[in-house]
Design a protein that fits this description.
The complex is a heterodimer of chains A (about 425) and B (about 290). Chain A is of the alpha/beta class. Chain A has two domains: about 190 residues, D-Maltodextrin-Binding Protein, domain 2 (3-Layer(aba) Sandwich), CATH 3.40.190.10; about 190 residues, D-Maltodextrin-Binding Protein, domain 2, CATH 3.40.190.10. Chain A contains 20 helices and eleven strands. In chain A, the strands form two sheets. In chain A, strands 1, 2, 3, 4, 5 and 11 form a six-stranded mixed sheet that branches. Chain A has a five-stranded mixed sheet with strand order 8-7-9-6-10. In chain A, α2 links the parallel β1 and β2. In chain A, α9 crosses α11, α15 crosses α16 and α19 packs antiparallel against α20. The relative contact order of chain A is 0.17. The N terminus of chain A is likely disordered. By secondary structure, chain B is an all-alpha fold. In chain B, strands 1-2 form a two-stranded antiparallel sheet. Chain B is about 70% helix and about 0% strand. Chain B has one domain: MetI-like fold, CATH 1.10.3720. Chain B is flat and about 75 Å long. The chains are: A alpha/beta (about 425), B mainly alpha (about 290). At the A-B interface, α3, α19 and α20 of A face α11 of B.
């Protein structure tokens, strides 16, 4: 016991001496590995080299869920990092944790210009009165990926319009008739076909402005528009026109291998598809139902944002602010956007990318940006703020699987998803009271 | 006849079991006590506040028919894993026991799968049965069978059972083989001279003499199926399709570590603890009576 106490004291002293000489250190925990991990490290190195007051230390903590759990466990032990990356479904959990997180607009101070961030990107992470609570880091939005060769093989015009689901339905008929085994598949079914579907058709996914206006929200995903869409998808699944591959992005392997003609997936799938696809592919905007809306609203984002944790020194928060300011600069954002395929978080970065000729050299990479920014977001298309949302997505996955296998009708499945999800929302409301 | 060894006095036996008690206290009683305590609250994930709800978490769970359904799923899963892993192991052990040449090689090969971690085993099986690139799926396709465990509940259950039982076969095999080799050859030879054929000898001599091993493995395998199969489920199906492979321990994980709902997760652990305790007591009380030591 005695030994360990003196050991801790010695270690603490060692740390203190180091801190006295070194720059202020900012801990940044993230969930990126591989190429994305390298790009994050590069950003951090650039920041550290650009000034001499602060050192950002980046640490990989596992996947999104593991990173969030690491942050929570660290906070409980009083060892929390300054900056924690949290995926978009964890937003409500972080927001409810008053006393554990410090809103980004407070960290950034008075001179913080929130208007330069793209509305539909930051909207997911702002408070009801419009202040940014976290800094969007990597954001993407769903689009329609098309295998042009597959369409041509099936005797269809690869340029055939697929702006609406009605038109897509016709294309699927043609593909099936031509004997294509996988006319269409999808990744992230709940995110694309319910969450984004609702925003895109300006229909609520949940009451209380999709949860932005309070934790007493209830799911509204069993509305007529959603039921009609899931019902059509269910019929396509029964007819072998829509092939379900799994809850995550398992379908991506089928599309990249050239088996599937159409694929609804995140715009951030660009790097992977470009690297692997040995066919002529194209990005199209996500289709909408003409019968539901005369024109589409904007889609919403997926990805992660950076949260600032409470319990650190003022000087360290100044370092956090400097780093976030750096991340928001046009050059860094434009580079990130072009390297990763994630959306730029500021309009300036989008402009810069255009000036640099990136969109012309890589056609289709601007589709996601246009789809997100063409319209000012409404109550229904700002984003979602629901507690226990990771679990609610799990429930939605289960219920949708029941539709794809033909066990349940769309109405039954979505009613059940809403009922089960609401039970979780009530628990979350109670826990965060 | 008194089966137990008896000691005079209390201090020596106490001293002898002390290390075991200490380990149990630190690694079992303390966490179990914590789980029971936490199950009475709804805490927020960051530990900023805790609300006393009494038995509220249990009421919430037991009123959820999807949670109740996962009891049945767990029962089916555990029985299948136990029966498959023990049945195959016994069959292999009987065969290996009769081998004269090369038995060492066979034994070593059969024990190998035990060294594979459950999550890795899950990935191996997932690759073989992958709906797109799986070897087995491809052969089944040639036979005209469309394997799709992503949507077919029965196939998903079959796959997780096989993947969970596979590594376990080695472990069971080892115990069965040791059990078989401990049976005196003279007894079996005597029966053979009396004209008993293999099946008769197995039924009347080997099986009863093997019963302590079988009983031990039954208890251990059920506990394995309840608690340690989590990695396999997580990598292969994540509990799907629908809720076909959501066993109780998987739900503890997903509610606690994915959903951050620690109150519900703790309550589920307590329920699981109670089930396993009851099962073990039942096993020792009723099945052990039929075991010949």
């Amino acid at each position: 016991m005695k030994l360990s106490t003196s050991f801790i004291a010695a270690t603490a002293m060692l740390g203190a001496t180091q801190a006295a000489y070194a720059q202020t250190e900012v801990q940044f925990w993230h969930a990126f590995t591989g190429r994305l991990g390298e790009l994050v490290a590069e950003q951090v190195d650039t920041f550290n080299a650009s000034q001499s007051d602060y050192t950002v230390v980046q640490t990989h903590k596992g996947n999104y869920s593991e990173t969030l759990n690491a942050g929570i466990a660290a906070f409980r032990a009083g060892e929390q990092p300054h900056i924690l990356m949290v995926f978009e479904v964890g937003t409500a959990t972080m927001m409810a944790a008053q006393g554990a997180v410090r809103p980004v607009y407070e960290v950034m101070g008075d001179g913080f210009d929130q208007s330069k961030y793209i509305g539909s990107v930051k909207g997911y992470y702002t408070s009801a009165d419009g202040n940014m609570l976290s800094l969007p880091f990597n954001s993407s939005t769903p689009v329609l990926w098309v295998n042009r060769d597959k369409l041509a093989e099936a005797g269809l015009d690869p340029d055939t319009p697929m702006e609406t689901w009605e038109q897509v339905g016709g294309v699927l008929d043609g593909l099936k008739a031509a004997g294509v085994d996988c006319p269409m598949t999808t990744a992230w079914q709940s995110w694309i076909h319910l969450e984004n579907f609702s925003a895109y058709h300006d229909t609520p996914f949940a009451t209380k402005e999709n949860g932005f206006a309070g934790t007493d929200t209830e799911l509204a995903l069993n509305g007529a528009a959603q039921v009609a869409h899931v019902s059509a998808m269910g019929q396509w699944a029964q007819d072998g026109k829509f092939i379900y591959a799994g809850r995550r992005n398992e379908g991506g392997a089928n599309f990249r291998a050239g088996e599937c003609a159409l694929f609804t997936e995140s715009s951030a799938g660009y790097a992977g598809i470009k690297a692997e696809a040995e066919f002529d592919f194209e990005v199209r905007p996500l289709p909408y139902w003409e019968a539901v809306a005369s024109e589409p609203q904007n889609t919403i984002i997926g990805g992660a944002s950076l949260w600032v944790m409470e319990g650190h020194e003022d000087a360290e928060y100044a370092g956090v602010a400097a780093f976030m300011d750096f991340l928001s600069s046009a050059e860094i954002q434009a580079k990130w956007h072009q390297d990763t395929g994630y959306l730029p978080i500021t309009a300036e970065a989008g402009e810069l990318t255009k000036q640099q000729g990136f969109y012309e050299a890589n056609p289709g990479t601007d589709i996601a940006v246009i789809q997100m920014t063409a319209k000012e977001p409404t109550e229904n298309s700002k984003g979602l703020r629901l507690g226990s949302f990771d679990q609610i997505r799990g429930i939605i996955d289960e219920e949708l699987e029941a539709v794809w296998s033909g066990d349940k009708s769309a109405q039954e499945a979505l009613d059940s998803a809403a009922e089960r999800g609401n039970a979780l929302l009530r628990r979350f409301e109670q826990a965060s009271r | 006849m008194e089966k137990r060894v008896t000691f005079k006095g209390i201090w020596l036996p106490l001293l002898l079991v002390l290390p075991q008690i200490l380990i149990t206290a630190v690694f079992f009683f303390y966490p179990a006590g914590q789980a029971i305590y936490q199950s009475l609250f709804i805490p927020d994930p960051f530990g900023l506040s805790m609300q006393w709800v009494g038995l509220g978490n249990f009421e919430y769970l037991l009123s959820d028919r999807y949670y109740r359904a996962s009891f049945l799923t767990t029962a089916i899963f555990s029985i299948l894993v136990t029966v498959v892993s023990m049945g195959v192991a016994l069959y292999l052990a009987v065969l290996a026991d009769r081998l004269i040449k090369g038995s060492g090689t066979y034994r070593t090969l059969l024990i190998w799968p035990y060294a594979v971690a459950p999550a890795v085993a899950g990935v191996l099986w997932l690759f073989m049965f992958n709906t797109r690139v799986g070897v087995v799926t491809w052969y089944l396709g040639l036979l005209g069978y469309d394997w799709n465990h992503v949507l077919n509940e029965g196939e998903a259950m079959g796959l997780v059972v096989v993947a969970s039982a596979w590594g376990r076969i080695s472990y069971n095999f080892l115990f069965f083989l040791a059990g078989l080799q401990a049976i005196p050859k003279s007894v079996i030879e005597a029966a053979a001279i009396d004209g008993a054929r293999f099946w008769t000898r197995f039924r009347t001599i080997v099986w009863p003499l093997l019963s302590p091993t079988t009983f031990f493995l039954l208890v251990v395998n059920i506990i394995y199926a309840f608690f340690e199969t989590f990695g396999v489920i997580h990598t292969i199906t994540s509990g799907g399709p629908q809720q076909a492979t959501t066993i109780l321990v998987y739900k503890v994980y997903s509610d606690g570590f994915v959903g951050q709902d620690l109150g519900s997760s703790a309550a589920q652990s307590v329920i699981l603890l109670a089930i396993v305790s009851v099962l073990t007591v039942v096993q020792f009380k009723y099945i052990e009576r039929r075991v010949h030591y």
